[in-house]
Amino acid sequence: MKRRMGPKASTVLALVAAIALSGGIAACGGSSDTTASASSSSGGSNAQLALVAYSTPKHAYDALIAAFAKTSAGKGVSFTESFGPSGTQSRAVASGQPADVVAFSTESDISRLVKAGLVSSNWDANTYKGIVANSVVVFVVRKGNPKHITGWNDLTKPGISVITPNPSTSGSARWNVMAAYGAQLKEGKSPSQALAYVKTLVTKHVSVEDPSGSTAMSTFTGGKGDVLLSYESEAISAVKAGDPVQYIIPKQTILIQTPDAVVQKSSHLKQAQAFVNWLWSSQAQNIWAEKGYRPVVPSVMAKYASKFPTPPQLFTIDSLGGWKQVKKKFFDPSTGLITKIQQEAGFPTASS
Q1: Which residue of 22, 87, 92, 271 could cross-link 44, Cys pair, CB 3.0 to 4.6 Å?
Q2: pLDDT tens string for the chain (352 positions)?
Q3: Residue 141, SS3?
Q4: Which fold has domain 7-133+258-304?
Q5: Smallest Cα–Cα separation from 232: which of 246, 216, 212, 219?
């Protein structure tokens, strides 16, 4: 039996604007203070930066901020951190939640802030197009893989229960859906056949849709479902934590590209930009890799080739039209193809 998001998750969608305007933590997010200091005289002294991010990379940002503290640019810089569903976090910042640096799951969540005049239109003008780390969509299964899950077709076999977040709030969920859709195209199916596969998957096999990728992982490790669609990085963290799970990288999957940007109205613009720029340094890229993310700097990624194998039929969101087109076609709150499937399945669909 399908389980919709619980009361807390439903409250997220109704109250996010109020929470944002009150300057509170974004719904389903957590907040902490991290102080960075170093001995060099250069850098920003006594500047506190608000990092507003999607739910899954908290462990990575904790390590990154600690390392940044030891750089000259990190002298005297402290951070507040808020983590939650990517779409919810983006809407909260657009509605007024204070932020100096934003780290979201999808480019479209940054674009919302560009439209709102909060992020520069050339935020993605560097070599890496604003992407600080990559991942891929994987299948997380019970240890020993008792259901013998190896490919996308196995997810729609009778009796298989799939966990994935809700695309109304979660960027992770949108990556999962587009991975499923694009995988069908890679297998030679037509767009209509690919959409039919997604409809079957969501309406007949997805049993739980939590608000974020991290809460979906908690649901799965708590014992619900046979398969979790998730970030590779989340799966690696779960295995390291000793959870009785393993993960499969399907032959056909999507490259998850996660962007960071500086909020132009930041009171500490210099320090915020310095932190974001530092995320592409070799030191930071190695930390991303250690935390389960695929580095975007080729020289660093080359060191981790065995840890992060390239799937045979890896594809990108650009091959499906790019986030601007994908968001309108699939996730528009009124006419989106996935929105309609979500409604038919009985899951919440309020989004923008």
Answers
A1: 271
A2: 454 444 334 433 333 333 333 333 333 344 455 545 433 333 446 899 999 999 999 999 999 999 999 999 999 999 999 999 999 999 999 999 999 999 999 999 999 999 999 999 999 999 999 999 999 999 999 999 999 999 999 999 999 999 999 999 999 999 999 999 999 999 999 999 999 999 999 999 999 999 999 999 999 999 999 999 999 999 999 999 999 999 999 999 999 999 999 999 999 999 999 999 999 999 999 999 999 999 999 999 999 999 999 999 999 999 999 999 999 999 999 999 999 999 999 998 976 5
A3: strand
A4: D-Maltodextrin-Binding Protein; domain 2 (3.40.190)
A5: 246
Whole-angstrom distance, CA of residue 147 vs CA of residue 141: 8
* Same fold flag, 7-133+258-304 and 134-255+313-345: yes
Count of H-run helices and E-run strands, the chain: 13, 11
According to CATH, the superfamily of the domain at 134-255+313-345 is Periplasmic binding protein-like II (3.40.190.10)
**Which ranges in the chain belong to alpha helices (H)?**
7-21, 58-68, 86-94, 107-115, 171-186, 191-200, 213-221, 232-240, 269-278, 282-290, 298-301, 322-331, 337-345
